[in-house]
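User: Some background: our group keeps a shared notebook of sequences we're curious about, and every so often someone picks one and asks for a predicted structure to add to the entry. Today it's my turn. The entry only has the sequence so far, pasted here. Could you supply the structure so I can complete it?
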Amino acid sequence: MSNEQVLPGHGEAVASHDVLHEEHAEHHHKQSFITKYIFSQDHKMISRQFLFTGMTWAVLGGLMSVVFRLQLGYPHSTFPWLQDIFGKWAEGGRIQPEFYYALVTMHGTILVFFVLTGGLSGTFANFLIPLQCGARDMAAPFLNMLSYWFFWMASVVLLSSLFVATGPASGGWTSYPPLSALGDASEGSKVGMDLWITAMALFVVSSLLGGLNYITTILNMRTKGMSMTRLPLTIWALFFTAVLGVLSFPVLLSGLILLMFDRHGGNSFYLSDIFIASTHKALPNEGGSAILYQHLFWFLGHPEVYIIILPAMGLVSEVLAVNSRKPIFGYMAMVGSLFAIAILSFLVWAHHMFVTGLNPFLGSVFVLLTLLIAVPSAIKVFNWLTTLWKGNIRLNPAMLFAIGFVSLFISGGLTGIFLGNSTLDNHLHDTMFVVAHFHIVMGVSAFFGMFCGVYHWFPKMFGRYMNQTMGYIHFWVTLAGAYLIFWPMHYEGLAGLPRRYPDYSGWINFNQFEDLNRFMSDVAVVVFAVQLMFLFNFFYSIFKGRRVVTLNPWSANTLEWTTPIHPGHGNWPGEIPEVHRWPYDYAKDGREFIPQTEPISAAEARH
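Assistant: Of course. Here's the predicted structure to add to the notebook entry:
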């Protein structure tokens, strides 16, 4: 199919493509369950597969955080049911220190990569790029299918690491050597670490297959009239996200391959002058540097946080404009700031490494570049707020999550200024301040972007509406809960409370936080329960939600709302619509909205 896709300006190819499409549709009805739902090459089905897999991981990763929050909030209590579930890892009903670290490691890996990268980008890039660009499908549907199945294989391998005798990887979600490079270092450095590395390698392959597909589709397969400057901001954000992934993920893969060589090949890329106390022997490794791994990891790791947040920014930009009934403010400035963030995200990785003995002058360069990235971020925030200003605002659940995203991005982003300063970072590094900062600005913010996208595009995905009352409860409890859990952590971090410790009761000066930790743990349980309510709303609405009876329920301008309520494989039954204007013609010429497909009138042309 992709070979017949119409490129801008090739109108005569439309007819032949549609004949082919109708022939394909005839064949499509004969598809078996397996070819339609499992090994599907339809971008919409693949997007749902990413979404369901991401949701499964989100529940698992969220459950892990509830378990270790119980340990942090109630360090002296025992929970016998924990031993029933985890066996020797929670002997006597208390999480063992090694298992606590494994939980933190897996929670970080799952949420950062498998939910907020695979789940978020995989879902919305697959779903929106062909629909909003005006394409029948992705450039390479078969590769698109493979990208999901590599993601699925990565998920299976990572999940299996939870069931090996020595337990899952426990080197932190960053897996720094020497802990990750030496099997003798801990139980979690044995088979679980091998499985972690394998899962991440498969995940990188999935990301590359997806990213190349997204870039190719956006550049080559836009419908007639859809110039780059008429693309919705969602597509721009997903485009830059894909570019970041294609350029940075291979660096992580190379770092992980070297790690495997150190683990099993007797090499010394990251190891040098190591003495193992338990075996009373010195290792022969010489000349390696653990800092090299940090450079390779964070060269991916910092673009990674923007790979997570850029799609959320794109979804939020679209939803804010649609529900403010106003044109997005400063479209080209928004595109330019996305581009600036994409460039700068490659130049700031060593701000994660201020305490590694980094040359202070080099550190000051990274401080400057880190603070510079606040400028395009501030432009985006200003433009979102100006889009809302004096808008005819509809406060549906999608809009509330979009506004919540802006709030979290501002408050979480401001704390990044502290950490971006190399002098302050000496005190704050590896404290709860860091945990608070990135959970608000990246974790919870990205989830808000994802929720905003799910509520907004659910009618297009499933032909039904989600329950609004449950959506409102979901929003308010999650927003209040996010601030109540993570805001107090900033104060703990300023007091020097270190992260990744299962029990702080041994420190007299941290006993003051006992009640606060208990409070945060209680709120975490409530917030997790509300996410289960969201899941119920989601799956119940797929089957029993109110049916969509209008093509364009939100009165939006973009192309996906011109397809049938239940679009088939190929999206449009006839010709692909031609685009005549940008996607943000709201409140113009006395009209509430003007779709992209409506030709420009003579009067408009004169203006």
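Suggested note for the entry: Residues 306 and 509 are 36 Å apart (CA to CA). The two ends are 40 Å apart (CA to CA).
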